[in-house]
Amino acid sequence: MTADLFENLSLTLSDAFTALRKDLIHPDGPSISTMRNYRFAILQYQPADEFKLRAEVQRLSSDLMANGWVVLTINLQRLLLDRVRAQSEDWMHRVIAMERSTAKSSRERGLNYLQNKLAPLIEGPDGIAADCSRIISNYIDEHPDKVDHTVALIGRSGSLYPFFRSSALLKHLDGQTRNVPVVLLYPGERRGEKGLSFMGVLSPDSDYRPRIYP
Which domain holds residue 198? Predict the structure, then answer.
């Protein structure tokens, strides 16, 4: 294990938010990414620290708002449920009944069935990424003067497990956020320099361009 990895292990969730706050309010503008015109970052945390994370998000939001910032909090669980509720009641009853029936013989088969039914609702450029983009764009349309002091925090991504990878979400959001800094709150484990394992269970995904905090 390298010295860098030992250093990452010693950092706390509070350290990660302190670094994020510093980079957001940088004198030259938000610097959460080393790439020009790519204002995305990931804040990785252990799934067991979900409630600690929410407390840190509240502290960061209060601090930023006290300094004239607007914090858009995007709840992926709510967006997922909104998309499910948009289906017919008959669709929901059929899916629930079939998942229960399939899971009796094999939990894995039940999950695979549910994934096949949910995937068309949440994947791709017209899926949950479009909902996130709409929330950000609607706010900027109404408050164009706030674009330089607005940040979007995307949370509750654990609700998408195991149906959707967050790397796909960021891919489809690229170019669709009106240059507003976007931070994905990522429940999982760091594997190497750029690898992330969603919920600490899925195989590591190294398809990430954003900076990863801590």
Answer: 3-80+123-213
pLDDT of residue 38: 83
Q: Tell me whether residue 27 is in a domain.
A: yes
CA distance 83 to 101: 23
CATH number at residue 153: 3.40.50
Q: Which two tokens stand for residue 180?
A: 């507003």
Integer CA distances (angstroms), 29 to 75, 106, 179, in order: 25, 52, 12
> What is the band of 129 on the pLDDT scale with cuts at 50, 70, 90?
very high
Q: To which H or E segment does residue 51 belong?
A: helix 50-66
Query: What per-residue confidence (pLDDT) applies to 7?
Result: 43
Q: How many domains does the chain have?
A: 1
Give dist(CA 199, CA 213) in Å, integer. 16
